[in-house]
From TrEMBL:
Belongs to the Nth/MutY family. Residues 11-21 have a biased composition (Basic residues). DNA repair enzyme that has both DNA N-glycosylase activity and AP-lyase activity. The DNA N-glycosylase activity releases various damaged pyrimidines from DNA by cleaving the N-glycosidic bond, leaving an AP (apurinic/apyrimidinic) site. The AP-lyase activity cleaves the phosphodiester bond 3' to the AP site by a beta-elimination, leaving a 3'-terminal unsaturated sugar and a product with a terminal 5'-phosphate. Binds 1 [4Fe-4S] cluster. [4Fe-4S] cluster binds at C309, C316, C319, C325. GO terms for molecular function: class I DNA-(apurinic or apyrimidinic site) endonuclease activity. It comes from Streptomyces viridiviolaceus. InterPro entries: DNA_glycosylase, Endonuclease-III-like_CS2, Endonuclease3_FeS-loop_motif, Endouclease-III_FeS-bd_BS, HhH-GPD_domain, HhH_base_excis_C, HhH_motif, Nth. Its EC number is 4.2.99.18. It catalyses: 2'-deoxyribonucleotide-(2'-deoxyribose 5'-phosphate)-2'-deoxyribonucleotide-DNA = a 3'-end 2'-deoxyribonucleotide-(2,3-dehydro-2,3-deoxyribose 5'-phosphate)-DNA + a 5'-end 5'-phospho-2'-deoxyribonucleoside-DNA + H(+). Residues 160-307 form the HhH-GPD domain. This is Endonuclease III. Its cofactor is [4Fe-4S] cluster.
Amino acid sequence: MGEQGPDGGKKTAKATKRAAPVKKATAEKGAVSESAAKKTGAAKRTGVAKKTGVAKKTADVEKTGAAEKPASAASARKAPLAKKSAPPKKVTVAPKKATAAVKGVAPAKTVAARSPRDESRTALVRRARRINRELAEVYPYAHPELDFENPFQLLVATVLSAQTTDLRVNQTTPALFAKYPTPEDLAAANPEEVEEILRPCGFFRAKTKSVIGLSKALTEDFGGEVPGRLEDLVKLPGVGRKTAFVVLGNAFGRPGITVDTHFQRLVRRWQWTEETDPDKIEAAVGALFPKSDWTDLSHHVIWHGRRICHARKPACGACPIAPLCPAYGEGETDPEKAKKLLKYEKGGFPGQRLKPPQAYLDAGGTPAPPLGAG
């Protein structure tokens, strides 16, 4: 029950009237709160819907690869559009090595199988030794093409062969050795007389100085005998490693590699080594073969360089090792034209074109007299 005031029920009525606005305000606040809640819920639902729609559109764009344009500028401002997906990039595949077959295209035909620069060490050794075996069959009688009867004559002839042909040396040494048969005789010779004999060989003054000097060294230091050791030979005037190995391999039977101009040219063409220094070439090539093969290998390579694999016009079309040569094609590849480039010297006619090496074997397969003989 309500509290009665001094005037009875009036107090209750006034209190009721004063409380009514409060209740009304509370009701209005409740309505406002309810309305705000409704708006907030609607906004949330709208935001979720918008986000869901944008996500759906983005997913559709990713699937189809193209974004739909907005219906109007307003909607474009309200809902961010997904970025257009870039067209797929063209995939570029690196070309395979030239040796690989291309799909749908027939592989190019080559006459000779070229060896890649990056061939393995084992493959290089096998190819190099096979080349030597092939050359051994073509030149079974390969030998030094300088005429000599003893180590002294071979030593002098090899020194004289620098910057000239073996044939020219063979035409010059008979007169020299007839007049000065021993190191003692040549050591005491008149330089002017020796120069006159050696004039056809070219550089005759320098060569005269070398042969007289090495003859004096042999007489004074080695008792007139040619030493059989590399370290002793290279101390003689005009004697380098190339000359020393020629003497050791052919006069003493001690293996050695002769790195002359032909040898250097061919081993680089065959990609046995890329070295240019003779000593480094000797070491690189020597590592590919057993030591027992060194002397014969030198003869095979030098003979091939003089007869078929020339410096300017190699006869590729007539070469017996063309399938093993990476440089095939540098010279004439037509077999008939290549045969005309073959060179064999015999009987004092430099550059005379004769029959292939096999023709110099007799009926029983025995080597005929060596080239350069009379």
